[in-house]
Design a protein that fits this description.
59% of the residues lie in helices and 7% in strands. Helix 1 runs antiparallel to helix 2, helix 2 runs antiparallel to helix 3 and helix 3 runs parallel beside helix 5.
Amino acid sequence: MLDAYGWLDGSMGMLTYALVRDGRPQEAIHVAESNLALWRAGQLSDGLGARWDYRLANSLNATQQFTPALAAAQQSDAMLQRAGVSAASHTGWLARQEIVRALIGLRRWSEADASYSSFWPACHPTSWLAPAPPIGGFWPCWPPRTGAWTKHWTWPSARCVTATASMVPITR
C-alpha cells in the first residue's frame, strides 16, 4: 500500500510542476493545498507533508506570492531537518531552492545569498574547489568527466523567480 501511495505522490508532485510550467499555477496550488489538508488531518506522513509544502512553495513562487511561498518552503525545510534528511538529498535541495527563490522574489538579496551559500557545499561535493557564487553572479556547473569548470549558468532575467528552467547556458 505504501508503495502505491509513493507512486501516486510522486506522480501528483510531477503534476504540480507540469501545471506551473504550463502556466496553470493556481491549479498546482489547489493540488498542493489539498494534499496538505490530508497531512494536517493525519492521513499523510510528515515526510509527505514536507514534500507538499515545497511543492506548494514552488507554485506560490510562480504566482509571485513570495511571502507565503517562503513560509511553506521554510516549514518544509524544518520538517525535513527534523526527520534527519541529509542536506545533500534531492528532497532537501528542492525545499531549500524554494526558500532562495522566495527570498529573491522578496528582494532580500543578502538572505538569499546566505541561504544559497549555506546549502551549496552539501549539494555540490566538489564545491570545496570554488566558493558558492553570489545569486546575482554565476552559478557554476561541475562537469563530471573533464574535471574543469567549462560552463556557467546565470540568471538571465527576473523570470528565474517564476521558472528555474529559464536559466540558460553561457560559455566562457
